[in-house]
């Protein structure tokens, strides 16, 4: 594939993630922090997010599987995940966490189980999308091209 | 350097204020590894030196306020700004803010609180306790730029006032005769050997011990 074509694909792909609400403007903020001196900043942050989230989701599953659910343990985990997803612009994960927290407050175990599934779904979605995005970027760089700056006019 | 003089800009004796500003050293406190990475980059890209720690306790340790060495232990350390998350396990950002404002050495350091929750009573509480500003997460580059400008402006004003008051203090010191510090012990100090330093209870008892050995 031609370099220009790859760059166009990347732009279109990224745009679609914003239009679908998978990513929000905070992701653009992170991209602005990336430059020649820190060319991998975004992927580094996102990798930390993946590692952190895997851990949190695991802890959440364990906490919710207990005979007696300790919401004092559950809520801080969800709060953490809400924070980190917000920090990287993973909008749908963040929104799912907001809903999750309201059910934690109500101490509704059933609803919390459903929320966890929803959060996991959104998380795997954004993980998948971002991994694809980074692959596209790598292909461009490998072909000697530059990552096109995101246009904000949409 | 006197105790309490934590932040200083180098001002040439000519009083010329148009020097290139030194880098701010910022201590960033956040229990989230993702947020630590982001705030570190935001600050670095804004030309600040950054140290990140993951808890209020670690922040106090770094500053030397955890009671271990005492605040005087870390002479090279010059923190110009503390940016801390509010919701952290253990010491919250608010607790940390209070401890810093209670410290005679560090209370002058501006503290900025970050939080993902826009809770007005919380914001008011922090500002009342002496926080410089409150940032809503996710923190953006514009927020960091604004804070930096605020801090640099305050520092420049402090230095202007300080260089005037330092000159005045210096003049006073030269004029005054050195006065002896009063001895904290109540008993009369009739030690015949001349002592140029103020006697303290500790030193006196050490002397007494020594003289009893003779």
TrEMBL record, chain A:
Coiled coil ranges: none
Alphabetized UniProt keyword annotations: Acetylation, Cytokinin signaling pathway, Cytoplasm, Nucleus, Phosphoprotein, Two-component regulatory system
Superkingdom assignment: Eukaryota
Main subcellular location of this protein, as a coarse class: cytoplasm
Domain HPt: 38-143
Short name of any one Pfam family annotated for the protein: Hpt
Molecular function terms from GO: histidine phosphotransfer kinase activity; protein histidine kinase binding
Cellular component terms (Gene Ontology): cytosol; nucleus
Family annotation (Gene3D superfamilies): HPT domain
GO biological process: cytokinin-activated signaling pathway; phosphorelay signal transduction system
Positions of modified residues (Phosphohistidine): 79
Subcellular location: Cytoplasm, Cytosol; Nucleus
Role, per record: Functions as a two-component phosphorelay mediators between cytokinin sensor histidine kinases and response regulators (B-type ARRs). Plays an important role in propagating cytokinin signal transduction.
Entry comment, domain topic: Histidine-containing phosphotransfer domain (HPt) contains an active histidine that mediates the phosphotransfer.
UniProt-recorded name of the protein: Histidine-containing phosphotransfer protein
Organism for this UniProt entry: Brassica carinata (Ethiopian mustard)
Lineage, top ranks: Eukaryota, Viridiplantae, Streptophyta, Embryophyta, Tracheophyta
Automatic annotation (TrEMBL), chain B:
GO terms for cellular component: nucleus
Domain Response regulatory: 25-152
CDD domains assigned: REC_typeA_ARR
Biased composition, class Basic and acidic residues, residue ranges: 204-214
Location of 4-aspartylphosphate modifications: 85
Keywords linked to the UniProt accession: Cytokinin signaling pathway, Nucleus, Phosphoprotein, Transcription, Transcription regulation, Two-component regulatory system
Start and end residues of each stretch annotated as Disordered: 170-214
Subcellular location: Nucleus
Pfam family, one: Response_reg
InterPro entries in the record: ARR-like, CheY-like_superfamily, Sig_transdc_resp-reg_receiver
Gene Ontology biological process: cytokinin-activated signaling pathway; phosphorelay signal transduction system; regulation of DNA-templated transcription
Signal peptide (UniProt feature, chain positions): none
PROSITE patterns for this protein: RESPONSE_REGULATORY
Major subcellular site: nucleus
Entry similarity comment: Belongs to the ARR family. Type-A subfamily.
Name of the protein in question: Response regulatory domain-containing protein
Species, as recorded: Brassica carinata
Phylogenetic placement of the source organism: Eukaryota, Viridiplantae, Streptophyta, Embryophyta, Tracheophyta
């Amino acid at each position: 594939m031609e370099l220009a074509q790859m760059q166009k694909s990347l732009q279109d792909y990224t745009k679609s993630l914003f239009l679908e609400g998978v990513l929000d403007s905070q992701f653009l903020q992170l991209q602005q922090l990336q430059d020649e001196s820190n060319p991998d900043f975004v992927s580094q942050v996102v990798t930390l997010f993946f590692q952190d989230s895997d851990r949190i989701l695991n802890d959440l599953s364990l906490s919710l599987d207990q005979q007696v659910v300790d919401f004092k343990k559950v809520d801080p985990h969800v709060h953490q995940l809400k924070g980190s997803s917000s920090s990287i612009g993973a909008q749908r994960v963040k929104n799912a966490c907001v809903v999750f927290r309201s059910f934690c407050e109500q101490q509704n175990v059933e609803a919390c189980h459903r929320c966890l599934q929803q959060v996991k779904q959104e998380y795997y979605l954004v993980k998948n999308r971002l991994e694809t995005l980074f692959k596209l970027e790598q292909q461009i760089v490998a072909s000697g091209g530059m990552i096109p700056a995101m246009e904000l006019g949409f | 350097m006197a105790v309490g003089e934590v932040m200083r800009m180098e001002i040439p004796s000519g009083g010329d204020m148009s020097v290139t500003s030194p880098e701010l050293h910022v201590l960033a406190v956040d229990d989230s590894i993702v947020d630590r990475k982001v705030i570190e980059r935001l600050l670095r890209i804004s030309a600040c030196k950054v140290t990140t720690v993951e808890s209020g306790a670690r922040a106090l340790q770094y500053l030397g306020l955890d009671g271990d060495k005492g605040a005087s232990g870390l002479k090279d350390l010059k923190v110009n700004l503390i940016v801390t998350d509010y919701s952290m396990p253990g010491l919250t950002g608010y607790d940390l803010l209070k401890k810093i404002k209670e410290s005679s050495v560090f209370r002058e350091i501006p503290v900025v609180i970050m939080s993902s929750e826009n809770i007005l009573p919380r914001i008011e509480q922090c500002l009342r306790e002496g926080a410089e500003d409150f940032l809503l997460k996710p923190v953006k580059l514009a927020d960091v730029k604004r804070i930096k400008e605020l801090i640099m402006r305050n520092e420049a004003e402090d230095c202007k006032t300080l260089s005037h008051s330092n000159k005045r203090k210096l003049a006073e010191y030269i004029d005054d005769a050195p006065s002896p510090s009063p001895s904290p012990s109540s008993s009369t100090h009739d030690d015949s050997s001349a002592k140029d330093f103020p006697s303290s209870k500790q030193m006196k008892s050490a002397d007494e011990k020594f003289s009893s050995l003779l």
